[in-house]
Amino acid sequence: MKDNNCGYCMKNELLDSFGIYICDLPSSVLVLFKEQSHPGRVIVAYKDHKSEIVDLTVDEMNAFYADVRRVALALHKAFHPDKVNYGSYGDTSGHCHVHLVPKYKDDFEWGGVFQMNPDKKYLSEDEYNEMIAKIKANL
């Protein structure tokens, strides 16, 4: 099931406003978050437009979190963070997704909760492409 008004479902300008589509995974869509204060920050969104984790069957949930784990491993290999934070929100999108936020001990936010969109660091197209290639190489 897809929602025509959802960026994760449609992979269109709604998604382009905050992220860059990387690839499809078995149960999800992988998106690079454009704001890169935390190098490697991505979003893993469930493949169908379901709002809550409780809307997934146990098998669907397990497959989704297998994708989250796969991406977390790729982030650790690609960017060597000290920790990855996981955030699952969706008040405004209504689409089940998880933010994976690599954290580093010298981060401006180390020891605290990451800001949703600190608007501190955006990259060039080449830098985004390099980051995406690094993630894909480690998936």
Q: Care to describe what's here?
A:
The structure is a single chain. This protein is α+β, with helices and mostly antiparallel strands and 139 residues long. It has a single domain, classed as HIT-like (HIT family, subunit A, 2-Layer Sandwich). It has 4 helices and 5 strands. Strands 1-2-3-5-4 form a 5-stranded antiparallel beta sheet, with helices on one face. The protein is globular and about 40 Å long. The mean pLDDT is 92.
- Structural Rg: 14 Å
CATH architecture: 2-Layer Sandwich
User: Roughly what percent helix?
Assistant: 25-40%
CATH topology (fold) name? HIT family, subunit A
Shape: globular
CATH superfamily: HIT-like
Give the N-to-C terminal Cα separation: 26 Å
The parts where pLDDT drops under 50 for at least 5 residues are none
